[in-house]
Amino acid sequence: MQPVSYRLESAWQPDGGPNGRFTFSLFNLSGRVLSGFRLVYTSLTRVIDPAACEDAVFLRRNANFHEFAPPEGLTLQPGESWTFVVSGLHRQAKHCTDGAKSAYLTLSDGKHVPVAVSDLRLEGATSEPPPARLPVGRLDLPFALQPWPAKIDAVAGEGFPVVLYPAPGSSPEDVEAVSNVLALFHRLFAAGHAPFSLAPSGQGVPIIFAKGADLAPEAYRLAFSPRDIRLDYGAAAGRQYGLTTLAQLLDGARNHAGKFRFPASGTIADRPRYDWRGCHLDVSRQFYPAADVLRLIDILAWFKLNIFHWHLTDDEAWRLEIKAYPTLTTLGVLRGPDEPLLPQLGNGAEPAGGFYSQKEVKAIVAHAAALNVEVVPEIDIPGHSTAALVALPELADGQEAPESYHSVQGYPNNALNPAVLLTYEFLEKVFDEMVELFPSRYIHIGGDEVANGSWLASPLARRLMEEEGISGTFALQSYFLTKVKQMLTARGRKLAGWNEVAHGGGVGTEDTLLMAWENPKVGIELAREGYDVVMTPGQAYYLDMAQAEAWQEPGASWAGTATPAHTYGYEAEGEFPEELKSRMKGVQACIWSEHFLSRGYFNRLVFPRLPAIAEAAWTPKAEKDWLRFAAIAPLSPTL
User: Fold this and answer.
1) Are 437 and 376 contacting, i.e. CB atoms less than 8 angstroms apart?
2) What's the pLDDT at 574?
3) 512: which strand partners?
4) Of residues 449, 553, 594, 625, which has the active-site annotation?
5) Is 449 a catalytic residue?
């Protein structure tokens, strides 16, 4: 481990500016004199008034990248520190993760050196520790099941079998299904005792498989007796879910015998509440190696979630290999002081990259399919396209004034231009490669957060708007997305997008699925317009949101606080009128990665809320029970 040579400490105070102020202190621990340097830090709490600085010179900002110079002539001897204050912030800090996420120095010789950072301190107010996320819980039935089944009428036994095994005469497909769920269990709980054996055991109980003609594809029934367990299933997914239920029951009874038991008799009749039971992962802000993606898919399968929404591109990076455009995963992923993209959200002196090769993508898609998880890929267009535009500058209108508009995250001119003909050639080739990689019914095209005013300084766009009789950014966005939908339809795919796809006239509602994220009422409005809807409101289902109001609780705050109890109790159907409920196809968790700088923060923010959403997706409303869930949730696997 290298010793820390420089450290940046930061604190926020609620006074001293419209949105409070940051106080930064840079400590020279290097043993060398420091002078003629510049300091860079990345932070989601951005500076919007460059003049509102004391004892520092603001040099530039790009989204979350901030660069400062010390007062002229400042020299730091070993052990000395430099303190400066920034009060021109775009919002108040709410949580300990709202400060600097990374930092580095550029020395007088141009060399970049890392600077250690800590979470943001709160000064001038009480810095409360976060409360417990789960109560102790209560069990009416002593069974370790996540999500809870639709109907259970079972009697707990005094003991439990050592293993469960396929009854003699089971089909090769049934035996393979047992092997697959056993492999899933071993991957998630490497030190756990195997719940299944493919070979018969005198200390075990056989499983008798039967395909139930009366069961939906994802449904199953379990009948328990001392002699055997009967598993009826609708299709391969239902069989997998039934076996997963058995693995959970046996593992809970074995490892927590004083709390959980294995059924001695009775039945479980189970099927999902919604068809779309999703989890999204943003791999653009932070890169997750393929092994992490595979493990997350395993966790989804363990909780009977069936959609993995893979957010592959954004302003910060384009992560999907496209062979027609290799610069997307060279220029379009490298972030660093001297790289095509500036450091953002945790990047420091060392360049950061990472992308998924097509070989890796095929392996991930196949892994998911074997677990009955559909991988829905997303390339986020037309906004959130900084990385694509850096990789392919020919996609921009060269006559458009620089910084003529900024996204909500602070990126200048970050939207693909609907008036640049090469944009459509580019997308045609990207979609050609995507449909070969992803057999999913849907391709998600983003469509969110296009800044009002985008393209209005582009002569090409102004000419197109005049020719087509289009007025304003969102009508032009609708024109663009209609063409995108035609591309997808020609390739046998349906369009999925965020709720803003409906702006400016939207696209055709047939074969279009929109995700309501801004607030729950948006979903009802979309359904009323004729769109199929997946509910994923930030106020309940965004897993980057802080779980308590306490300063020391990590996470984002724009959508408020999403405690595990709130996430669990939220009813996505909400105020949907009865005649619109058929338009609501399901629910989805979203993992946005701005705050996920460590495995510890990932697991703290995602769990237990991900299994809470899984239960909302599967379990009927009448069968949900927060205290029961709280008692079982600690058994959850983590990344």
Assistant:
1) no
2) 86
3) 495
4) 449
5) yes
DSSP per-residue string spanning 263-324: EEEEEEEE--S-SEEEEEEE-SSS---HHHHHHHHHHHHHTT--EEEEE-B-SS-B-B--TT
Angstrom distance (rounded) from CA 82 to CA 31: 15
Of the candidates 302, 304, 191, 207, which has an alpha carbon nearest to the alpha carbon of residue 255?
191
- Residue in 67, 314, 374, 532 annotated catalytic: 314
Pinpoint the residues of the chain covered by CATH 2.60.40.290. Answer: 6-122
What's the confidence (pLDDT) of residue 333? Answer: 98
- Residues of the chain scoring pLDDT < 50: none
CA distances, 393 to each of 239, 283, 331, 387, 400 (Å): 50, 23, 11, 10, 12
Instruction: Report the helix count and the strand count for the chain, using DSSP H and E.
Output: 14, 26
* Closest CA relative to residue 395, chosen from 381, 410, 408: 381
Question: Which pLDDT score, from 0 to 100, does residue 575 have?
Answer: 84
For residue 543, what are its two tokens? 């897993």
Residue 276: the pLDDT is 98
Q: Where in the chain is the domain with CATH 3.20.20.80?
A: 276-313+344-384+430-447+462-619
Task: Give strand pairing partners of 57.
Answer: 69
CA atoms of 174 and 160, how far apart (whole Å): 22
Overall fold of domain 6-122 = Immunoglobulin-like (2.60.40)
Residue limits of CATH 3.30.379.10 in the chain: 151-270
Catalytic residue among 112, 309, 384, 444: 384
The CA-CA-CA angle for residues 499, 504, 510, to 5°, reads 60
Q: Which residues of 340-363 are buried (b: 16+ CB within 10 A; e: fewer)?
A: bbbbbbbbbbebbbbbbeeeebee
482, two tokens: 């209609």
Contact 316, 335 (CB under 8 A): yes
CA distance 274 to 384: 30
Please report the pLDDT score of residue 3 as a whole number: 85
Question: Using the 8-state DSSP alphabet, how is residue 18 labeled?
Answer: B
Nearest to 545, CA basis, from 595, 600, 475, 620: 595
What distance in Å separates the CA atoms of residue 507 and residue 511, rounded to the nearest whole number? Answer: 10
Chain centre distance of CA 328: 22
- Looking at domain 151-270, its CATH superfamily turns out to be Chitobiase/beta-hexosaminidase domain 2-like (3.30.379.10)
Show the tokens assigned to 453: 């005013």
400 as an active site residue: the answer is: no
CB neighbour list of residue 28: distance below 8 Å, 6 or more residues apart: 5, 6, 34, 76, 77, 78, 79, 80, 81
**498 conformational bin, left if phi > 0, alpha if psi -120 to 50, beta if neither:** beta
For residue 623, count other CB atoms closer than 10 A to its CB: 16
Q: Is the dihedral of CA 166, 214, 235, 586 positive or negative?
A: negative
Residue 314 annotated among the catalytic residues of the structure: yes
The residues near 212 (Cβ < 8 Å, ≥ 6 apart) are 219, 220, 221, 232, 233, 234
- Which fold would CATH assign to domain 276-313+344-384+430-447+462-619? TIM Barrel (3.20.20)
Residue 363, φ and ψ in degrees, nearest 5: -65, -40
3-class DSSP assignment, residue 236: helix
